[in-house]
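input
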Amino acid sequence: MKLAATIRAAALCTAVALLPATTAGYAQVEGRASPEFARLFATYQRIKASYVDQVDDEVLIRGAIDGMLASLDPHSAYLDGTALERLNTMIDGNYQGLGISVQMEDGAVKVISPFRGSPAEQAGIAAGDFITHIDGRLIYGLEIDDAVAQMRGPSGSSIELTIFRPGRDNSFDVTVTRGVIELEPVTSELIEGNVGHIMVNEFSADVGSDVRNALRDLQSQATGRLTGLVLDLRRNPGGSLDEAVALSDLFLSDGQIVSQRGRNRQDTVTYDSETVYRGDVAEGLPIIVLIDEGSASASEIVAGALQDHHRALVMGERSFGKGSVQTLLPLTRDSALKLTTARYYTPSGRSVQEGGIEPDIRVPQLSDPDAERRQRLALRESDLRGHLVNEAGVRDEALERDRLDDPRFQLTAAQLAEQGVTDFQLDYAVRTLRRTGGAVARR
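output
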């Protein structure tokens, strides 16, 4: 079924943890509608009778649905044919375009993250940038699907984007040549010193098994045993809850991985280790998990689970802070609701909603000359209008700790470039593994 395929694909382009969709249909309105429904219907009638122009029912009903969902939280939404078609494109594993993930923020198109190695990344587009014009045309206020449609196009064609980057006085133009975007959820490399580096770019289907296979390949490439493993979840916006559980289970042999708590008692579900994979596939191997402000949802589940079980050392920057679960509920053959149905909690009972995952060692990205400015202006869950509030309460000081200066990290981007270091966070993690050996495997 087309809709089922779409649901499985949703992890490729949205920062949500997904659950299997339950059967659903249009709710039947009772014969005696409540006063609130009466007001809604009265408003509809007045608009139909008195608005200056004729308005189609489809426009009014869609507006009412969007308004209801917008009053809930930033992650609940109505998906119709256009949006579902976009998700279908993503499940194919490749498409022609820029290789960029965007969202709407107060009518503006904001870059969540360019995909690794994409034309957008190669052109210098960065997370947090705002796209204000496409080929000289203002796109402020445009629907997100319309903006994405304009950025898509045949491979080899060029597009000019006008970029506003927070912290800079003036906007600037960037010409990007579209390409065929191959979505690779997992990539890996063996770094000198027998250190494995596995990058998980999104939690789509089979990520757990892909990481297991990547680890086996690294072990076969190494001269002797691996010294350590860097599990890189930076700029990973999330995806499938099942795959987050599977990836965590690779490295855990006992205990809980994550729990979710919904409105009703039956919505409380726990996910335990040893349910997907038996044992720790990398037992004794020290692991460092890298996260940043772009690590969200499923990424935070993995980082939180490995951190709580003392299986890995978490480095980088505080994560995005999306601690809610969205379920896709079909309405018709070509429409569905993406509805927030639960909050999730790490094994120790922490909710990462708003506060995110705090790294064990904060490591700034010194190789990025704009990193400090980007951190000050970074958009996180707590900045989104209408976000769910952390039930435990998150003190402002806790949200500011990652902005404090650390005397250990004083080199400039230019100095690091002279040393040949283009990714300071990764370099620091690798040097830590080489220096400490198995000491970071369990604390």
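quick obs: The chain is about 30% helix and 25% strand.
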